[in-house]
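Subject: Putative sigma-adaptin 3

B.,
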Amino acid sequence: MIKYLLLISRQGKLRLAKWYVAYPKKEKAKLVREACQLALGRSARFSNVVEHRGSKYICRRYASLYFVASIDKDDNELIVLEVIHHFVEVLDRYFGNVCELDLIFNFHRAYFVLDEVILGGELEDSSKRTILKYIQVHDGASEEIEQAGSNGAAAAIAATVGALKLRRRFECGEHRRQWPPLFLWTCVCLLVLFFSFSIAISCFFPLRVGG
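Prediction pasted inline below.
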């Protein structure tokens, strides 16, 4: 059983980490440091298998990446080497001449591919064609969901804009009904002042004449 699988760059950067055994956070950090030291500090002439702290480390280099897997001491290291190579071949077919940048910018896809190859620390499927078929189906479904979400968001935005325009028109109509034009208000005010002035004069002069 594979305990964990790490992908480490030549600069010692962790590009992918999959844990199949529960470890505390501090223990994980310690194991990653040890794996980096074992992978980067070994010459290409040395064996791909290293025994350390009661476990076996399977280390294999592809271009600028080191694939490091930890297994139990009694497990078959040759099978794990083939599993790692199988995973690399699937990545290469999926991305097309895979490189480190593909794993950096598409790490979520790399994890998905890994989950189709290894499940619970054991080889899940040995057929690259079957794995790629499942991945293509998943990618197609994801694209349809994203497209449906985009169309739904666009429809919601369009409906919101339409509702705002309709509300604006309604409010403008109410505004015109409630508040007449300035010219009409001016005429009304002048008429009120004229009649008020006329009434005041008619009331004042009879009082003076009668006095």
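The longest strand covers residues 2-9.

T.
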